[in-house]
Amino acid sequence: MSGDSDCTRTSPSAGSPSDNELLPDRPKYVCTLSPDLVTKAREELQEKPEWRLRDVQALRDMVCKDYPSLGTCLDDAFLLRFLRARKFDYDRALQLLVNYHTCRRTWPEVFSNLKPSAIKPVLESGFVTVLPHRDPQGRHVVCIRPDRWTPSNYPITENIRAIYLTLEKLIQSEETQVNGIVILADYKGVSLSKASHFGPFVAKKVIGILQDGFPIRIKAVNIINEPRIFKGIFAIIKPFLKEKIANRFFLHGCDLNSLHQNIPPVILPEEYGGTAGKLDISAWNELLLASEEDFLHDFSELVLQCDSSPHDLLVSGDADEKQCDDSLRGMKPQLYYCY
């Protein structure tokens, strides 16, 4: 593959740019995309196989030069996730990578001790799972069911941890990096008391991660069985959504035929009018829990070094937290009105 010559790794952060100090050996990247997906990546993501490793090296050099204390993994496969998520725009991919680490640094309630075994109760509740079959566009469907959460059992941040680990597992696949994912959120039975846990501060944090802090392409968000209270929830969420993402929200209510226009019945469980049998969460839970060692290895490389300064990363979330607390007081009446 042309571009192999670009894999010679130098360390821009050590000495002058002319220094040729070799970095430690990294796993050699081997493309696992099918010919059709290679074509799709070229057309939709501006990914050129002949330039792929050159592009990865360019991003690696930018990280070492501009953020030497970021403490990130610099393997080809890892950096490719960020390039694909930003259509091989170096600057935007670098910003996404920095945001990825900033999110982890500024929300310890979510990112401390983040591993599958730590969120086993959430997985067993069925709050989040992944349907066994991809849709016709090759996208995994992430199914979220808030009614499965009992707030007295654990805080909402545990649910967010489970969703995050699910996305981390999915994005390991190059197929998912190219095709993206679809979200199916079932809001059946969501009450006012439960919705009140999802205030503007949490909403802003979660949406910030999904839009600007995680290398995944969310192609559609299908909301099913939403009660009137969802108008209040969406009122909290919408100000933080970019127009492109907002346009990918589809509210189906109880209309399964409307849902089937976006997700075919052949891959849906019986609970959503599909023909794929009962919704089974065990297969995904077993897969995620079996990946414990992978996460321990991957995340061990993602711990920010103690000498990193605010200049190295994006602004801290302290100001945002105060702003969102103020917003929460204004949003609560909307929740009560919609309920």
From TrEMBL:
It holds the Pfam family CRAL_TRIO_N. Transmembrane segments: none annotated. It comes from the Eukaryota. One of its GO terms (cellular component) is membrane. GO terms for molecular function: phosphatidylinositol bisphosphate binding. Residues 8-19 have a biased composition (Polar residues). CDD domains: SEC14. Residues 1-27 are annotated as: Disordered. Residues 115-280 form the CRAL-TRIO domain. This is TTPAL protein. The gene is Ttpal.
